[in-house]
C-alpha cells in the first residue's frame, strides 16, 4: 500500500532513577500520497519522537513503519539514504542540517548532487525557482548560511528538502519561534509547493490555527497517543 505508514508503534526511553518513559504508545498513522496532515499536541506529547521514527532516525520498540509498501525494519543507513529521494524531513533546529560555513548554494546543491542525477545547469535552475518560491533573494546564494536569520535558515532548510522533489515531507515544528510575518511566509511556501508538486506533508505543530489553515486532516496527540482525528470539511 502506498503511503508513509506507521502501525501500532511504541517507543520507550530510560529515565532517571531507573524509571522508563513511554514516549509513544500504540500509535498508528497513514500519510497518503498527496495529502496534507497535521499532528498537533502540547510539548512532550510525543510528536517529535514520532517524526524521528518515521524518517528513520530511530527505530520503534514495537510496531512497523512502511514506505510505499516497503517495511523499513532493518534498513541500514544506506537503505535510508537511497529513499531520501522519496522522503525528506525538516526540523525546528535548521542548523542541524546546514553547514554554517558553506554558502547557501553549496548547502542546497550538496543534497541534489548526492540524491539526484540533475546536471549543474538543471540544479541551478531548480534552486533559482525554489529561491523565488520561498521569497529569498538570489544574492543570498553566495552568503554563508551562518549569516542568515532564523527565519531564513528555516526557509533554506525547506529549499534544501524541496530541491529533491520528495514524495513525502515531514515538518517538525518548522513554524515554531518565527514571528508572524516569517511564519506566514513559510505557510505560503508550503501551500504553493503542495499545489504545484502534489507532495504529501506531515506538519508537526502545537499551533491549531496553522494546522487548520494548511491541513486536510488534523491528528491530536496526547501523552504518546493519538486521541483525536479531525477531517476538515
From TrEMBL:
- Signal peptide residues are none
- Matching Pfam families, A to Z? ABC_tran
Can you name this protein?
Nickel import ATP-binding protein NikE
- In its UniProt entry, the species of origin is given as Pusillibacter faecalis
Question: Any idea which GO molecular function terms this record carries?
Answer: ATP binding; ATP hydrolysis activity
UniProt record, GO biological process: transmembrane transport
Spell out the InterPro entries in the cross-references: AAA+_ATPase, ABC_transp_ATP-bind, ABC_transporter-like_ATP-bd, ABC_transporter-like_CS, P-loop_NTPase
The UniProt entry, under SUPFAM superfamilies, shows: P-loop containing nucleoside triphosphate hydrolases
Which keywords fit this entry according to its UniProt record?
Answer: ATP-binding, Nucleotide-binding, Transport
Amino acid at each position: 500500500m502506498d503511503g508513509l505508514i506507521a502501525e501500532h508503534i511504541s517507543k520507550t526511553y530510560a529515565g532517571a532513577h531507573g524509571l522508563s518513559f513511554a514516549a509513544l504508545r500504540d500509535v498508528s498513522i497513514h500519510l497518503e500520497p498527496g495529502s496534507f496532515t497535521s499532528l498537533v499536541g502540547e510539548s512532550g506529547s510525543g510528536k517529535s519522537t514520532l517524526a524521528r521514527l518515521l524518517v528513520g532516525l530511530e527505530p520503534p520498540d514495537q510496531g512497523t513503519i512502511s514506505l510505499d509498501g516497503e517495511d523499513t525494519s532493518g534498513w541500514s543507513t544506506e537503505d535510508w539514504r537511497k529513499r531520501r529521494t522519496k522522503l525528506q524531513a525538516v526540523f525546528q533546529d535548521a542548523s542541524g542540517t546546514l553547514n554554517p560555513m558553506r554558502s547557501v548554494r553549496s548547502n542546497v546543491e550538496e543534497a541534489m548532487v548526492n540524491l539526484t542525477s540533475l546536471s549543474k545547469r538543471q540544479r541551478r535552475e531548480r534552486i533559482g525557482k525554489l529561491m523565488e518560491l520561498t521569497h529569498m533573494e538570489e544574492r543570498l546564494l553566495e552568503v554563508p548560511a551562518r549569516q542568515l536569520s532564523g527565519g531564513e535558515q528555516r526557509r533554506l532548510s525547506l529549499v534544501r528538502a524541496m530541491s529533491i522533489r520528495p514524495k513525502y515531507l515531514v515538518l517538525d515544528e518548522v513554524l515554531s519561534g518565527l514571528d508572524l510575518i516569517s511564519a506566514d511566509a513559510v505557510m505560503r511556501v508550503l501551500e504553493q509547493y503542495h499545489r504545484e508538486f502534489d507532495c504529501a506533508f506531515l506538519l508537526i505543530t502545537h499551533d491549531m490555527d496553522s494546522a487548520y489553515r494548511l491541513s486536510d486532516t488534523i491528528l491530536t496527540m496526547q501523552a504518546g497517543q493519538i486521541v483525536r482525528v479531525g477531517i476538515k470539511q
